[in-house]
Structure formats: C-alpha cells, structure tokens
Write a structure and sequence with these properties.
Blueprint (H helix, E strand, L loop, with lengths): L2 H18 L6 E4 L2 E5 L2 H10 L3 E5 L3 H6 L5 E3 L5 H8 L6 E6 L3 H12 L5 E6 L10
Parallel strand pairs: 2-6, 3-4, 3-5, 5-6
Antiparallel strand pairs: 1-2
Length: 135
C-alpha cells in the first residue's frame, strides 16, 4: 500500500470513529435515555454530600439479609419493572444502584431508565464496596 492509500485508510478510520463515537464518559444509553456507571468511591461521595437520593440493592432477600448498604431499598433486578414506580415515585431523584458483582445492577439500571428514571447511577457490586455495611 502506498502512502496515499495509507492516509486515505487512516482518514476513513478517523471519520468512522467520529461518527460512531468513543464514549469517553461512563454513561450507558438505553433507548435514548442513559444511566451512568460510577465507582464505589464516587457513590460514597454522593451519599455523603446529597440528601435526596435512593439506594437500590438489586439482589435477593437472602443476599440483602447477609449485609447491605445502610438505607438501601431491596428491589431484585427481576422485580424492578413491577415495583420501582411504587417504591421510587420520583423519576428525577438520584438513584444509586448496586448488586453483588455488578451484573444485576446494570440490568436494574437499564430497567429503571426504560421506565423513565432520569438520574440513575450504577456503581457495581457490594463485593467491591470498601465501606461499612449493615448486617
């Protein structure tokens, strides 16, 4: 390949990445809306600085009973669509979501966004939570 061909290929690649985008923030789009993935440290800072927020534990009752973050509301990820609107009536409230490892919290966050919640932040699993839990 000659230099002109290489430059053309490079230009096409740059254009494609410009169109498709490399999402540098940590938001995850779900049908036009999005939730943000944050770290446990970022979640803790929000818990310490904000007053009007909800913490959703997307695990089962048995897991919740073994230990959870203080103030968390248990809504298993498979029950989000059925229970969220009654337990979380303000769709603009800050909602912090976690589970055991991060898989179910992502599913729960996607479901919340799909229901119209606008300020959802998913912070992974309690296995990575370095702060106190309630047992």
């Amino acid at each position: 390949m000659n230099i002109k061909g290489l430059i053309a290929m490079l230009s096409i690649t740059i254009c494609l990445f410009g169109i498709v985008g490399c999402n540098s923030d940590k938001s995850v789009a779900v049908s036009g809306n999005s939730y943000e993935q944050i770290s446990a440290d970022e979640a803790k800072k929000l818990m310490d600085s904000e007053t009007d927020y909800a913490i959703v534990d997307a695990r089962t009752q048995e897991e919740f009973d073994e230990g959870h973050i203080e103030g968390a509301i248990m809504i298993p990820e498979y029950e989000i669509e059925a229970k969220a609107e009654s337990l979380l009536p303000d769709k603009n409230q800050l909602i912090l979501v976690y589970c055991r490892s991060g898989r179910r919290s992502k599913i729960a966050s996607e479901a919340l966004v799909g229901l119209g919640y606008t300020n959802v932040k998913e912070f992974g699993g309690i296995i990575d939570w370095p702060y106190e839990i309630v047992k």
